[in-house]
Amino acid sequence: MDWSLLRHPALIRALQGSPLYAALASAMQGLILGGELLPGDRLPPERLMAERLGISRSTVVAAYARLAEAGWVNARQGQGTTVSAGPPGHVAASKRAVRLGNPALRREGSGDPAWVDFALATAVPELAWLQPSAQAASLVLRESAYQPEGMLPLRERIAARYSRQGLPTMPAQVLVCAGAQQAISLLAQHFLQRGDRVLLESPNYFGALDVFRSAGAILDELPVQARAAHAPAFSAALAGGRHKLAYVCPSLHNPCGISWSRSASERLARTAAQGSGLLLVDDSLAELHFAQTPAPLPVPRGAPIVHIGSLSKTLWAGLRIGWLRAPEPLIEALRRAKASADIACSALSSALACDLLDRYDALLAPRREQLQSQAELLLDGLHRLLPQWRVQRPEGGLFLWAELPPRGPDAEAWVEAAAAQRVKLTPGSAMSAHAGFQRHLRLAFTQPAAQALEGLSRLAAIAEEGPTPSSPGMQPDQTGAARGPTSPATRAR
Fold this sequence. Notes:
Elements: H1 9-14, H2 20-33, H3 46-53, H4 57-70, E1 73-76, E2 80-83, H5 95-100, E3 116-117, H6 134-142, H7 152-164, E4 174-177, H8 179-191, E5 197-202, H9 206-214, E6 218-223, H10 231-239, E7 245-248, H11 262-274, E8 278-282, E9 305-310, H12 311-314, E10 322-325, H13 328-339, H14 347-358, H15 360-385, E11 390-391, E12 399-403, H16 411-420, E13 423-424, E14 426-427, E15 440-444, H17 449-465, E16 490-491
Parallel strand pairs: 3-13, 5-6, 5-7, 7-8, 8-9
Antiparallel strand pairs: 1-2, 4-10, 9-10, 11-12, 11-16, 12-15, 14-15
């Protein structure tokens, strides 16, 4: 059999990663996602791969086990290890839940203007944003070295913004990434091993859940609550010392659109400073708060706290620029991990990001106003057309978190029925580590007004006929966390 795969550059680069088995597993995931390994393809025998790569067989065994546990491959005694026939999912999730889970992996209607997409939040930038200034052009031309950590002028601007917001930051504490998703993935790859425990809010961002599952982590969820009410439970769990990593969105939560109070955030920071685990703070939506000026979670001296930010969420999804802000020793380790998979950031994207950050406040003000108007329009439309749905009024961000009536079809039945009418929805189960929130939907409110109203009209027509559930979705949600946030909600009626 041809084992030319063993000479693939991605596997060779993985030998520089740490821990080695995790880097090797991540490299093979990349080959599967890139189509270089197809469903049914057999992976090289463990002994052969170990010999060709010059590593121990136990490292290969651990990498294959990581891939199998996350669902990327199937291992059968006497038949070897083969690539799975479908995308990986949580071992307890049904095939239907996996298929409907991460909306970024669903291709129906992609690019078709006849579809209304409430599943993914996208923003179309102004044409003027995409015309780099002379200064940006100069930055591109001067960028001659590979810089896995990101272009220095860009890191300087990110650091300066953190400092102005009350969190003193040096450029050496910033690592530029291909969006917030890569930032989360780098942290998980470097910091987590199979069996480590991760503490997070529930519901939560599906991209983070996917990363932590792929790392083989055990996910412990606490229900989201607004403002100071949430801090004691989360801080107490973090203080218990059982978790290698905690992931939290205190500035503006995805998907609930709520935030913590300043005192609650400070309490969490003090707790993190006293523990041994890493606190990962995702501020990707923080700049889109409708009323508050963002203030990053404080970092007591020496505290193991990492912040994540992104331009992809605030201005333009097509600009894959995100970042990590972390203690310098951790940044250097992450820089090495990033270099094994992404040796340099795009100079053109980085220069454009410098331009945008120089005008950031001026660009964000109308962006927030537009999003608030779109949120109000969608809320009003739901009130008129789907009055039995319970919907939270968000403090900002990109999404509404809607709860379906206690009787009737569940969220996944709604997703399927809506797809038949060319409407994309995200079921709440995609935002849960343990298949909760089966009576919730996440609705993006980033569409133009006419398109959003057309989508609601199609959903209202489905409601009149009643979507036909194809799973046991007719009963009220019985999962404990699935009742959702306890902050005030508005019942549309």
